[in-house]
Amino acid sequence: MAGGSAGTWFLLAYVLFLAVGVLGFAAISTFVFIIEAHEQRRPNYRIMLTGLTLSYVGTLASLLSLAVAGEIGGYSLVIAHSTVNATQNLLSPYVNFITVTCLAVIIGTGLIVYGMCTAKGN
Questions:
Q1: pLDDT value at position 45?
Q2: What is the separation of C-alpha 77 from the centre of its chain, rounded to a whole number of angstroms?
Q3: Nearest CA-CA partner of 84 in 92, 66, 8
Q4: Can you give the residue ranges of every domain in the chain?
Q5: With 0-12 CB in 10 A as exposed, 13-18 as middle and 19+ as buried, what is 115?
Q6: Mean pLDDT (the chain, rounded)
Q7: What is the H or E stretch that residue 72 is in?
Q8: What is the phi/psi pair of residue 66, to 5°?
Q9: What are the distances in angstroms from CA 56 to CA 14, 47, 71, 81?
């Protein structure tokens, strides 16, 4: 995260939000529609709601944190002319938070897939 210009990580977070947030949730909606309409089965909504909540909150939190950390790191290197070590020390608190939120997204996606796989017929 220490490298790159001031907007690199912010732009990456935005592109990832479009890919994971918008397209990912559109794909989930499509799969649920296929399961319900064409296969006449009902997914486990309790598990899927938990998974969707984890995925949604984890996606937003991780990408917002990535954008904020990227802006802070870019400012520190480009505008404040800090050293790379000082910038890495500045960004180190963000690493664990982003890791935990990414794990929440992975667990949430797993729950969504499990909820779709355990769909029962009407």
A1: 87
A2: 26
A3: 92
A4: 8-121
A5: buried
A6: 86
A7: helix 45-74
A8: -65, -40
A9: 15, 14, 23, 36
Contact 119, 43 (CB under 8 A): yes
Q: Going by C-beta distance under 8 Å and a sequence separation of 6 or more, which residues neighbour residue 85? A: none
Query: pTM for the whole thing?
Result: 0.80
Strand locations in the chain, DSSP E?
Answer: 41-42, 120-121
Q: Give pLDDT tens digits for 33-58.
A: 999 889 888 888 899 999 999 999 99
Integer-rounded Cα Rg, in Å, for the chain is: 19
Angle, helices 84-117/45-74, rounded to nearest 10 degrees: 170
CB 78 within 8 A of CB 5: yes
d(CA 83, CA 102): 28
**In the chain, which residues have pLDDT < 50?**
1-2
The tokens of 95 are what?
């690493």
Q: Is 61 exposed, middle or buried (0-12, 13-18, 19+ CB in 10 A)?
A: middle
